[in-house]
Amino acid sequence: MARIPGTPLETLELPEDPPKQTDPCWCRSGIEFGKCHFERHLQPRESPWSALKEASRLNDAKYCGHPLASPVTCSGKIVRAHTVQLEGALSTIAVDRHVYGLAMKDGRLEYGLIGLRKASTFSGFCSYHDAELFRALETKPFTATKEQLFLLAYRALSKEVYAKRYAIRTIPLQRRQDKGSDALHQVNVQSYLYLREQALRLGLRDLESAIADYDKALLARDHDRFSGYLVFTDKTPDLAVSAAMFPEFDFQANALQSLSSAECLDLLTYTVLPMSSGGVIAFVWDSKSARSCEKLVASLDRLPMRELPDALIRFTYEYFENCFANPLWWDSLSGVQRERLLARINLAVSPTDDRTPDCLKDDGLRTARWNVIAKEWF
Ligand SMILES: [Zn+2]
Ligand SMILES: [Zn+2]
């Protein structure tokens, strides 16, 4: 979701003449040239450790995302809200309390082991609001009530908004990573980050408009304006996801909406909830977004049952960075299989490459170790 295809994103060019010290820098950081890229190649490189430390500090930026958040109502302590129920869900796909999570390594998303405590968490709400908000999910068995489905959607969207804001906050940090390198490398790094920031901001605009609607529904306890589709699995699916996306193409390569539209886009939330026996995959959307979401899901529903698991895996890797995997499953795949799934998610975060309409069509890859036993519109 990093890129809005069709939107003319400008690119950076090096100025022909050396800028003045007080000119805005060519990299469009908003900083004066003299304090930014002037003699950048001579500046000491930043240590990866200090960058990591600073990034994690930004991730801990304290704020509560609840619509009623205020110094009076909030508990002060921000918890790392779990985007899928931590003990109940993630532990079912963990090995020695670790799952695989995606992280950037040499400019590419790769899987690495992360502890359950760190997996899928974000400092999205204060402890009071986190407990209050998700009580119906965290303290009751999952029976797919309207409230539970709304909460899955709310949590998925909150996570997406938080992740996008965080990604934007880390851009200035990443912009400094070209210190001590030659001009060509500087232009490449800055161009990539400049495009990425524009794409992130475009995505955030629509996510923020959606979360405003979700907040209204939350406060009014208006769960009826949400619809969705549930898929139940026989064994524990080897994945856990809680995220949101803008439907673009369906499973038969039909276009659903143009992501370059100036209108607010239809938004779909997606949750893969593994359980100790079986699991549920939930597509939930607000009635405002019904048009594209219903078409996308209908195209999935038309597939034969036996093809659904791999279709869902394609969909997951096509769109969601926030995708945790069972290490036993992932390690059981061949190098080619892993590469083909990772290629999808790396395309998703590329600011320069577009998806093709047939991205969700059957590519022949078979990696699922579970079956779909039931599906249901609600
Ligand atoms: Zn600069
Ligand atoms: Zn709060």
Question: How would the blueprint of this fold be written?
Answer:
Layout: H1 48-59, E1 78-82, E2 98-105, E3 108-115, E4 121-126, H2 127-133, H3 135-138, H4 146-169, H5 171-175, H6 183-220, E5 226-233, E6 239-245, E7 268-274, E8 279-286, H7 290-301, H8 308-319, E9 323-325, H9 327-332, H10 335-348, E10 372-377
Antiparallel strand pairs: 1-4, 2-3, 5-8, 5-10, 6-7, 6-9, 7-8
Helix pairs in contact: 4-6, 8-10
One zinc ion binds next to loops.
Total number of distinct structural domains: 2
Helical region count?
10
Number of strands: 10
Radius of gyration over alpha carbons? 21 Å
The coarse overall form would be: globular
Helicity range: 25-40%
Order of helices and strands: HEEEEHHHHHEEEEHHEHHE
Bound ions, cofactors and other small molecules, one mention each: zinc ion
Strand order of the largest sheet: 9-6-7-8-5-10
Mean pLDDT: 88
Distance between the termini: 26 Å
Poorly predicted sequence stretches spanning 5 or more consecutive residues: 1-6
Q: What oligomeric state best describes the polypeptide chains here?
A: single chain
Structural class, by secondary structure, is: alpha+beta
Percentage of residues in strands? 15-25%
Biggest sheet descriptor = 6 strands, antiparallel
Region (Disordered): 1-21
Pfam families: SEC-C
InterPro entries: SEC_C_motif (IPR004027)
Biased composition (Low complexity): 1-12
